[in-house]
Write a structure and sequence with these properties.
18% helix, 10-stranded mixed sheet, binds zinc ion, alpha/beta, 540 residues
Length: 540
């Protein structure tokens, strides 16, 4: 029998392709990826690493990192230009190796021309081997040529409170692009280039206001891999931008969402590829929780005064959340004698007066528009009071109690779904509003949609009896605008308003993420938050 000759230990048999990372090792087959692709690994000169290099593309002459960035020969292109003294910006992102939406870019340029604004495009990278646009990996470093003069990838303070985080690259398929960046700026707000729209407010102990973190949306078309993450990225791809107005140390930020034809509405103007037009009246302004008794007069002024939000956007509907604060009958006060004492001294224990004042205010605010009152937990304090209280122990409110309770008793009946009773706050609004006031009080679970956006949920109740939040209401299969948390934000299909009250009330101690913010539904069905800072809300 012939003896098998061992190969010489000094001279390995060179099989496999050369490793592009270490140059001296070889790539050998090493099992399969989760996506059933052949994996090749170099282990020969691993040094302090377990393996030297792993790839599914052994023929590439350069190293591909997970983020799709070519290491070798990649000089990380720097895009910068002076941005001093600019007061208005419109900021978007562009994916590498991907065409721009030409008409959206043209509309963005109309915005810049009309508002004397600066367009900033943050370049972001994504490795998409199945892309129909990225013919070769060489394109990985290339952005659409039309964008050349607008690209910018530096970190830049736009004013004392706002930082452009254009140096940060987040994968376009990240489901929560802002997660882990909450602390990246100290007290300043930040803008991150990303194809998916997300916005949140973060409490800052050092500031009077929380900081806002937002992504931008993109000016490039959808270009994602044929994977689960890619499909999700494609679904949430936002053809959009972040409009920023700077006034001294303040800034105002709005979301721009383009239509398929590349046009978009910002405030009362519509920007189309060829020109700027007056937009059709907005479908709705959804006010940040009203809590009428505690409404901040500066928010009231910004919203309802001449030249204010309602006059300029001319919405068909006003939508109110937590219209009634229910301070007089707040169930959380029942066991606190000091709050009771303060209320008695200030003569604000009268429930009837608060309700009557609410409706009088509502009539004036609504005027000849249409309005919708979303059933909310604070409005529901009135029902809880009637259900839980013995009128003999609150004689100051006895007549109002008995009057309301009698109406409820007379309305009660059994339906197919169980017992039904009129909502007491709804009853008083209907009774006091007068025939000319076009206000509709929704029932719990009654739908109210405008522009395919569900506006009937307050946000206190989530799916299947859970507490409501943007996170559990973002994927209920319908776009929505909710209120309740007083902390505005955007999470996938769910936009949440802020509050119309001062940012510190009796019940929010500690650092707070509350802000004054309404939400708009424009005529084209797109939404934006509208922040109010010290009574101001935009550049003019
Ligand atoms: Zn509220
Ligand atoms: Zn609420």
């Amino acid at each position: 029998m012939r003896k098998q000759q061992p190969s010489s230990p000094k001279k390995p048999i060179l099989t496999g392709k050369p490793c592009p990372r270490c140059k001296t090792g070889r790539l050998h087959k090493d099992g399969f990826t989760a996506g059933s692709k052949q994996r090749y690994t170099c282990r020969e000169t691993s040094g302090d690493r377990v393996v030297c290099y792993t790839t599914t593309e052994p023929d590439l002459p350069y190293v591909n990192t997970q983020s799709g960035i070519r290491k070798e020969g990649d000089k990380n292109p720097q895009f910068r230009r002076p941005l001093g003294d600019i007061k208005r910006f419109i900021i978007t992102a562009a994916q590498n190796g991907t065409p721009v939406h030409k008409n959206f870019l043209r509309s963005l340029k109309q915005y810049c021309r009309f508002n004397d604004a600066e367009l900033i495009v943050i370049p972001i990278r994504y490795k998409n081997p199945t892309s129909s646009w990225t013919q070769s990996q060489i394109n990985a470093e290339v952005w659409a040529p039309e964008l050349k003069t607008y690209l910018y990838n530096q970190r830049k303070k736009l004013n004392a409170n706002l930082v452009l985080l254009a140096d940060i690259k987040t994968r376009p398929t990240a489901t929560k692009p802002l997660s882990a960046f909450e602390a990246i700026t100290a007290g300043e707000s930040g803008i991150l280039g990303h194809t998916k729209l997300q916005l949140l407010t973060v409490p800052t102990p050092q500031g009077r206001y929380p900081k806002i973190l937002t992504t931008t949306g993109a000016v490039t078309v959808k270009n994602y891999t044929d994977s689960k993450a890619g499909k999700l990225g494609e679904f949430h791809h936002c053809l959009g931008a972040c409009a920023v107005d700077i006034i001294g140390s303040k800034f105002f930020m709005r979301q721009v969402n383009a239509d398929r034809d590349g046009s978009f509405i910002d405030l009362e103007y519509e920007y189309r590829p060829n020109d700027v037009y007056h937009a059709e009246p907005a479908l709705a302004v959804v006010l940040g929780d009203t809590h009428r008794k505690f409404m901040d007069p500066r928010v009231q002024h910004a919203t309802f005064s001449r030249g204010g939000i309602v006059e300029r956007l001319n919405p068909e509907y006003l939508v109110f959340h937590d219209l009634h604060d229910g301070y007089a009958e707040n169930p959380h006060h029942r066991k606190d004698p000091f709050i009771k004492l303060a209320k008695a001294q200030a003569s604000i224990a009268g429930i009837e007066k608060e309700v009557v004042d609410d409706v009088a205010w509502l009539r004036k605010a609504v005027g000849d528009r249409k309005a919708v009152i979303v059933p909310s937990n604070h409005d529901n304090f009135l029902r809880r009071y009637i259900v839980d209280t013995d009128w003999r122990e609150d004689v100051n409110n006895a007549e109002f109690y008995l009057d309301t309770a009698l109406t409820m008793v007379r309305s009660t009946h059994m339906s197919l779904a169980g017992s039904e009773t009129v909502d007491p706050f709804t009853h008083w609004v209907e009774k006091l509003k007068g025939p000319s006031c076009n206000v509709r009080c929704l029932r719990r679970d009654e739908s109210f949609m405008l522009g395919q956006i569900e506006l009937s949920m307050h946000g206190d109740q989530g799916p299947n009896g859970a507490r409501g939040s943007r996170n559990n209401l973002r994927r209920i299969g319908v776009k929505s605008i909710i209120g309740h948390s007083h902390s505005p934000g955007i999470e996938e299909g769910c936009t949440q308003t802020g509050t119309s009250t001062p940012l510190k009330l009796e019940y929010n101690s500690g650092p707070s993420s509350w802000m004054n913010a309404h939400a708009i539904v424009y005529a084209n069905g797109k939404r934006s938050l509208l922040f109010i800072i010290d009574g101001e809300w935009c550049f003019e």
